[in-house]
## 1
Amino acid sequence: MEYKLVCPCIFGLEKIVGFELRRLGGEEISVENGKVSCRGDALTVARANIGLRCAERVLVEVAAFPARSFEELFQGVLAVDWAAYIPKNGAFPVKGWSLASQLASVPDCQAIVKKAVVEKLKQTHQVFWFEETGERYQIQFSIHKDQVSILLDTSGEGLHKRGYRAHAGEAPIKETLAAGIVDLARIREGDIVYDPLCGSGTLLVEAAMRALNIAPGLRRTFAAERWQTFDQKAFSLARQQALDEADPGGDFEGYGFDIDPQAVELTLQNAKLAGVGEKISARVEDITRHKLQDAGGILLSNPPYGERMLGPAQVKAIHQALGKMHRYNNLKSYIITSAPHFEEQFGKTADRRRKLYNGELKCQLYMYYK
Ligand SMILES: C[S@@+](CC[C@H](N)C(=O)[O-])C[C@H]1O[C@@H](n2cnc3c(N)ncnc32)[C@H](O)[C@@H]1O
């Protein structure tokens, strides 16, 4: 079966997701604000779920049409061969959103979509009541400028849930955003990476997995692999391919520091769960007292922004300490923050800046190449 895959992502990471999808077998890649689409078969869907580091989920589009009335919406959804996707006992909740469109009431649209799917399934499955006790086939609709897209969520839990972060510290960075920073920092096998404010270790773990080519989805399952209507071989094949490509014994060194002993513990635990425990070490250390040594390597960090964890004076001291660490250790540095005056306090203008959203917070990734 041919699919159109639609992969939402954090604003600013679209291009990276486009490259990832191409590498994973996607064709006719198209990049828009906050999402990337491509064409592919069941194997591409499985490979995308297992291998995408920066996308939030993998949806497949089952219909796209214009609609300005409930009747048009109903007919558009009714035209889909739903039985090809949803079996008799499948659960098929509906959610969605509408923006700048005639059909503005999301609850009403939700009810219409559900009704149309039920009507069509009644015809094909020859039943009059759906118990919905089986696997979940999450239906998602989006209506933008009167254009409707009807999608099925093949991921289930969001792709940021890799299965290694059993516990997160305070203000953890989302795994998909951390992976985007790792990509922009061009982390490779053989790299030495530092995070002097490592929290739960997300940046270090994502860096290690990237360097060793360990696919982020190897330790979890996805909704579509439990669908009886989906090619049953696709996920096992994709998982085997990802395992064959991984190099868990390759060279990589990650060093984490944090003032909080619990954070250090979390980093070590999460690294172990992710299968990169031998590549990452961590210890308690206050960055403002960091002992300088000409280490070389790459610094990745997500320091406290001063929004809730620390006050402006402490944030400034951390920025100054990061600047010193960068200069005296001959590092390349990639630091994400929403705090104002970062470059001034760090002591150097960034070679490049990239706007990225950490949840609702507009941040900058400051990139220093030397
Ligand atoms: C925003 S969190 C980092 C979250 C991390 N990226 C993650 O994914 O979990 C900032 C971290 O800085 C640590 N921290 C605050 N002040 C510090 C200092 N002076 N030296 C070292 N670490 C510090 C906090 O304990 C916290 O874990």
## 2
Amino acid sequence: MIVGRWFIEERWDLGKLVTFIPNKKLPIYSWFYFKEGFSRDFVHMMLDIFKTSKDSKIIDPFVGSGTTLLACKERGIDCVGVDIAPLAVFVSQTKTADYDIEKLKENARKLFQEKFEKPDLSQVSQYVKKFFAKPSLEDIIFFRERIRMIEDPAVKNFFTLALMNAAMKVSYAYKDGAVLKVVEKPVPPFRKFFKRIIKKMIKDLKKMSFKPCSIEVYLGDARKMDFLEDEEFDVVVTSPPYLNKIEYTKVYRIEYELFFEKIKIDPVRSYIGLNPKNVVDYFPELNLPEAAKAYFHDMKIVLEEIWRVLRVGGRVAMVVAGGVFPDRVVDSDILLAELAEDLGFRVDRIIGVNKRVATTKRVIKIGEARESILLLTKL
Ligand SMILES: C[S@@+](CC[C@H](N)C(=O)[O-])C[C@H]1O[C@@H](n2cnc3c(N)ncnc32)[C@H](O)[C@@H]1O
């Protein structure tokens, strides 16, 4: 398909690979359900296309649930992940840590030997309380406090993630797009359920085999990765937040309130394209909606940072999607390709992998929002 001066390869068969769905069945990859994530197989496909080896160094500046890191760990390739969301950093660190299985088992035994004492729920907000039956919430807070006393940080994170999963499974929370709804349902006894999740996670660790390498995760902003050296990386595999899509912090409010009480999330810093100051409109001829102008303003800065940390000849795979607005669809793949080219990247391929008909008022077709993989080379 030709759009303007660009050739878009049509590989609708690859659509599933850029979703989290294939990860749902995989050990460790599935430890946190991240709707906005891509799959292990996508990362492996990109690592193959880019002919990476054990000597390569990879970065994912929007690491999300850590899929890029974990795939690199399977191959023994050094990888760095960056994310602005503390929850994403926590999940990525926990999924990629090295564990002593006997130590985990020992801690699990101790945890379940503890005698239950009713915890104080006064610090839990009314908002969070709506999503739980009282006995479940009491169990969750009881275990949370016990887990906080574990000294080894990796072990502590492991049990916190298990608890978070168990908590969300027994909650009445239903993630409906970017909104959390209360949907009451019968819930299983918490302890039994929590125990089962821990057992499964330990089993997962035995199922996977990893090769030695360095995996680092930073809490940081892809627009300003000043903790990373120039030309440090060979390959970028990533997917930034999509234009005009999902507000990440809101759907994870329960996890944040229960497990990261001290962190106050600053929404302005949490996304790409939300209220940057002095927005430069890179496409004045298109008369883009304000949100799109702000998005491309920020993404240009991200591309500059990617340029800086990549070595000459370094490669980029970036999954992006078109933004749907009331009057039109904005082709993010093409506009990002234009920005990348202006910076000196070569646009090697634009591969369309998903398309969704966009309508206004559910009747009038206004266009097709395309999800694509953008492949670039730093010249
Ligand atoms: C589409 S998700 C990435 C999903 C990831 N590929 C995966 O498979 O899990 C985008 C991620 O970017 C993060 N993010 C948003 N703004 C950011 C910024 N300015 N710097 C770094 N990360 C950011 C979000 O917290 C989210 O985790």
